[in-house]
Amino acid sequence: MSRTPGRKQENHKISRELLVLTYGALVAQLCKDYEKDEDVNTCLDRMGYGIGVRLIDDFLARSAVKKCRSYSETAEMIAQVAFKMYLGVTPSVTCSSTAGNEFSLILDKNPLVDFVEELPAERASLCYCNLLCGVIRGALEMVHLAAEVTFLQDRLKGDAVTEIGITFLRKAEDRKHKRN
Amino acid sequence: MAIFSVYVVNKAGGLIYQLDHYAPRADTEKTFSFPLDFVLRPHDERVVVAFGQRDGVRVGHAVLAVNGAEVNGRFTADGKDVLEFLSNPANYPVSIRFGRHRLSSNEKLMLASMFHSLFAIGSQLSPEVGSSGIEMLETDTFKLHCFQTLTGIKFVVLADPRQAGIDSLLRKIYEIYSDFALKNPFYSLEMPIRCELFDQNLKLALEVAEKAGPFGPGS
């Protein structure tokens, strides 16, 4: 996004307003197309998944990070590097289970909802930023980490903070030959 | 031309992109009289020079054309066996074109899958846990560099042994892939890459890397 520092190779900047408006238009159109909130949420998640499977290579190519050796490293990487690179914000990470496979990202600023006050009454269970959940899920799947990503709390629904929960499931496959 | 070719292999080991960047090797076409100085023998589906290297025709060169017409494997264009044709003095003088047989796309596919398997074997053979696969393969005429991303895509570059800066070239190719292939909404993942922009930018990156020469590209 145009305000993110550190992407020195970017010659052309696109306005963040355009992205926010585009995302808003997308959600509005989905709301017109689908009656039920769950359908809109599923659709957003699916779209996000399609973005995530492609975004991961862009992230790895530009950030040149090394392979993460633990779930907590992965969660930190998502919060501190990926969110910073793509949305310009740095959520804080907390581990919310003793098993060490459930993490929460607390977002105090979310550029996508800067201009959204609250959800309309008839759309009470809409997850406005569900696209982000799909993106994270798709990206993790491409590096062979199966995860469930959902919104645990949402400021738009009246909660205090926006919280994304990432639950790492058992590794998709137990490969003997590991990638570098 | 210090970078010879680029291969991109997907997660399953299938070749999704291939580029040959070297100048076409000179084929030698000459007219010969009976008897031929070369010892020819069949090899795979071709007739190959086994001995008798001279005049630009080297051991390993295949018979590419007889009397101007391209051969079809071991048979001439009109269906006669090449070796029989060339052992008959009545057919002389004959003009034969010798040259290095270029890999067909099927052969490239097969070699890429084979490399994919060898790469996996390499990481399993390692005495250390969590080792990478084959990163470099060195011969006297070229060096093969391989970079596997965390998502499982492999970028393979064959270059002159003295060419430096291939590591950064491999990273650059990864960036070009993530830009022009992945961000193209009409490109499906794991499928052969048929994106014009990817081709163009890749060739540009290869030229930049070559110009830098044996000292590597400046940062």
- Number of individual domains of chain B: 2
Structural class of chain A: alpha+beta
CATH topology of the largest domain in chain B: Beta-Lactamase
- What's the pLDDT, averaged over the residues of chain A? 86
Main sheet of chain B, how many strands, which sense, barrel? Answer: 5 strands, antiparallel
CATH architectural group of the largest domain in chain B? 2-Layer Sandwich
- Give the H and E element order of chain A: HHHEEHEE
CATH architecture of chain A: 2-Layer Sandwich
Q: CATH homologous superfamily of chain A - what is it?
A: Trafficking protein particle complex subunit 3
Task: Tell me the domain tally of chain A.
Answer: 1
From the alpha carbons, calculate the radius of gyration of chain B and give it in angstroms: 21 Å
Assign the structural class of chain B, choosing from mainly alpha, mainly beta, alpha/beta, alpha+beta, or little secondary structure. Answer: alpha+beta
pLDDT average of chain B, as an integer?
Answer: 88
Number of helices of chain B: 4
N-to-C span of chain A: 30 Å
Q: Strand order across the biggest sheet of chain A?
A: 1-2-4-3
Largest interface: A-B, 18 and 23 residues
Helicity level of chain B: 25-40%
The CATH class assignment of chain A is Alpha Beta
Give the structure's gist in a few sentences:
Chain B: One of its GO terms (biological process) is endoplasmic reticulum to Golgi vesicle-mediated transport. Chain A is an alpha+beta fold.
What does the model show?
The complex is a heterodimer of chains A (180) and B (219). Chain A has a single domain (37-168), classed as Muramoyl-pentapeptide Carboxypeptidase, domain 2 (2-Layer Sandwich), CATH 3.30.1380. The model of chain A is unreliable at 1-8 and 172-180 (pLDDT under 50). Chain A is globular. Helix content of chain A is 42%, strand content 13%. Chain A is built from four helices and four strands, in the order H-H-H-E-E-H-E-E. Chain A has helices at 16-33, 37-63, 71-87, 130-142; strands at 92-95, 102-107, 147-153, 162-168. With 180 residues, chain A is of the alpha+beta class. The longest helix of chain A has 27 residues, at 37-63. Chain B is α+β, with helices and mostly antiparallel strands and 219 residues long. Chain B has two domains: 3-23 and 104-212, Beta-Lactamase (2-Layer Sandwich); 27-99, Pdz3 Domain, CATH 2.30.42. Helix content of chain B is 27%, strand content 26%. Chain B has helices at residues 82-87, 105-125, 166-181, 196-212, and strands at 3-9, 15-20, 28-32, 39-43, 46-51, 62-66, 69-70, 94-99, 136-138, 143-148, 154-159. In chain B, strand 9 and strand 10 form a beta hairpin. In chain B, helix 3 runs antiparallel to helix 4 (196-212). The model of chain B has no long low-confidence stretch (mean pLDDT 88). The A-B interface holds A 53-54, 56-58, 60-62, 64, 67, 142-144, 176-180 and B 120, 123-124, 130-133, 135, 148-153, 171, 174-175, 177-179, 182-183, 189.
